[in-house]
Write a structure and sequence with these properties.
- This protein has one domain (4-119).
- Helices cover 78% and strands 0% of the residues.
- It has 3 helices and no strands.
- The protein is rod-shaped, with a radius of gyration of 30 Å.
Length: 139
């Protein structure tokens, strides 16, 4: 039998998972700023796991709302605390995107500078061109 108690527990679980996702996003932001790719990879895997767990909770919530309320509520329904977590997470994602664009621009500028240096070095590092010489062997 499905009851409101299970729904409440699932909503609390969803809130806790969203909070954990928010803190994970904060850590991803820091890893990006530090350019710690190993840590970033771990955090991305953890974020994927958290999102999968949220999907499972949403699926169960949908089943419960179908039984309790005839499907009137969506599992994507968020209480005010959950909405706030998502708003803050979205803001962090915007910061992360800005930081990544900034880092990409710096890399592009460095690559352009290296190409220019390589071009200049190519001019100075050319092997001397030896002039062809004609030897008259009849003499």
């Amino acid at each position: 039998m499905v009851d409101n108690k299970e729904k409440t527990i699932l909503e609390q679980t969803k809130t806790a998972l969203l909070e954990e996702l928010y803190f994970n996003t904060q850590e991803k932001s820091q890893a990006i700023k530090e350019q710690n790719l190993e840590r970033l990879t771990q955090l991305l895997e953890k974020a994927n796991d958290l999102m999968a767990r949220i999907d499972v909770v949403n699926g169960r919530l949908q089943t419960i709302t179908d039984v309790l309320y005839g499907g009137k509520f969506s599992p994507e329904y968020l209480n005010s605390e959950q909405k706030q977590m998502l708003i803050e997470t979205r803001a962090l994602h915007r910061e992360i995107t800005s930081e990544l664009i900034k880092q990409r621009s710096a890399v592009v500028a460095q690559m352009q500078e290296l190409r220019e240096i390589e071009s200049v070095m190519g001019v100075y590092n050319k092997e001397p061109v030896s002039e062809g010489a004609f030897l008259d062997q009849k003499k």
